[in-house]
Write a structure and sequence with these properties.
Blueprint (H helix, E strand, L loop, with lengths): L4 E10 L2 E2 L1 H10 L5 E2 L13 E2 L13 H4 L4 H16 L4 H4 L4 E6 L5 H14 L6 H5 L5 H10 L5 E4 L5 H14 L5 E8 L3 H9 L30 E9 H6 L6 E10 L12 H14 L9 E4 L5 H15 L6 E2 L2 H4 L5 H8 L34 E7 L4 E8 L5
Parallel strand pairs: 5-6, 5-7, 10-11, 10-12
Antiparallel strand pairs: 1-2, 1-8, 1-9, 3-4, 7-8, 9-13, 12-13
Length: 409
């Protein structure tokens, strides 16, 4: 990347609460925060019952009740974490408003809560009875639009929906906007909510982990021999991206440098599943990083987007082994604690640059010998100079980012 792109602010909210510190504590303890989801008719016997849900009110002081009333749950999270990120970057709203501020947001499903409510209105009373308030929040780009309204951002406004890789792709696209001179700063990240209908459908298609008699709860056994699916979570994470020289001129701390990014599509992947193009994906990854001046030997650790999906984790392990061979650095898998879709992966990746003392995730005690990739055993890791974020998605999308620690940080 010809432009030095840095992260100067981060906002996150998820099942552990609001901010990076509650998440750091959950990772340190290996604690998976789950709560019941309303059961809909037709739940399969032995199916998933739990999800990572937000605490009752994590939005104060970032979102007023008046504002919240006109937003879907996902938009509330998006605005909340955007404001948190701006505050963390030591920026005032007056410094941001205008065409220089862009928004690049990822979401896997958007607002399924309001979509289900809108459809119910149409079924109950006919299409002319549907609420305009609900309708405007059913589109996937509503959450990025609400961020723009809240912060006065009139620059580019993008939404990326590529399932598991949506958040990484949104951050990569945000860096593109800076590099192309189309923005002065970018709010980039991801947001997703959990709704009963979304949870129900994912369980019916066999995507979610199921409870076991031993645990009586579902666990995302990431890279584990007994993995059977992921645990869905809600939340959001937004980063402030800006040119490094601008950040240094105003004296704000730099959380990380976004040094390189790579994207790919696996043509072997069907619409709703992972493919088998590990060699091709690894070749794309290594080739792109080499083109951007990144030697794989310089990477201290990998933060993997593996989530407990049987075929997804297998593909991720094969891509990493094909790329790194026997020189694979420690691999962290935060989705064993954060769950899937809620933005916790992005926030965890930022924390992974620091000294890491993360406990193994629940359910990850039995590695899968076929993967040849044991999950991190909880050993303390010194601060990283450079890490690789990797996220593959069902449907074939793939994205990788390289984050560096700012010299002297």
């Amino acid at each position: 990347m010809s432009l030095d792109v840095v992260i100067t602010g981060a906002g996150t909210v998820g099942p552990p609460g609001a901010g990076l510190e509650p998440l750091r504590e959950s990772l340190r303890e290996g604690r998976l925060e789950l709560s019941p989801v309303e059961a809909l008719p037709g739940r399969r016997p032995g199916g998933a019952r739990l999800a990572g849900r937000l605490p009752e009110d994590p939005f104060q002081p970032w979102l007023s009740p008046r504002e919240a009333r006109r937003m879907s749950p996902a938009s509330r999270m998006a605005v909340c974490v955007a404001r948190m990120a701006v505050h963390d970057a030591n920026l005032e709203k007056e410094e941001l408003a205008g065409p220089g501020l862009a928004v690049s947001l990822g979401t896997a499903f958007g607002s399924t809560t309001y979509t289900a409510a809108l459809l119910q209105q149409a079924l109950d009373a006919g299409p002319t009875a549907i609420s305009p308030l609900l309708f405007m929040e059913t589109v996937a780009n509503a959450h990025a639009g609400q961020i723009a309204l809240a912060l006065g951002a009139t620059g580019s406004n993008l939404t990326i929906s590529q399932r598991e890789s949506s958040g990484l792709l949104a951050v990569a696209r945000g860096a593109d906007l800076l590099r192309q001179g189309r923005a002065e700063r970018v709010l980039a990240g991801s947001v997703d909510e959990v709704s009963p209908i979304q949870h129900h459908v994912l369980d019916r298609v066999g995507a979610l982990a199921r409870p076991t008699p031993q645990e009586d709860r579902e666990l995302p056994r990431v890279f584990g021999a007994e993995r059977d699916g992921f645990v869905i979570s809600e939340g959001g994470t937004v980063f402030v991206l800006e040119p490094g020289d601008r950040a240094r001129d105003r004296g704000t701390p730099i959380l990380a440098r976004l040094t390189a990014r790579a994207r790919a599509a696996d043509p072997s992947a069907p619409l709703g599943d992972w493919g088998h193009g590990a060699e091709e994906l690894a070749e794309r990854l290594t080739g792109e990083l080499r083109r951007q001046g990144i030697d794989l030997d310089s990477i201290d650790r990998v933060v993997s987007g593996a989530n407990g999906s049987p075929r997804g984790d297998l593909l991720e392990a094969r891509v990493l082994r094909a790329a790194f061979g026997n020189a694979l650095p420690p691999v962290l898998a935060p989705k064993s604690v954060t769950g899937e879709y809620g933005g916790g992966f992005l926030a965890s990746a930022l924390l992974a640059l620091d000294e890491v003392e993360w406990a193994p995730g629940p359910g990850c005690a039995q590695p899968d010998p076929e993967l040849d990739l044991p999950p991190h055993d909880g050993e303390r890791l010194a601060p990283a100079r450079r890490l690789l974020l990797t996220c593959l998605a069902s449907g074939g999308s793939a994205c990788w980012l390289v984050l560096d620690r700012e010299p002297g940080a």
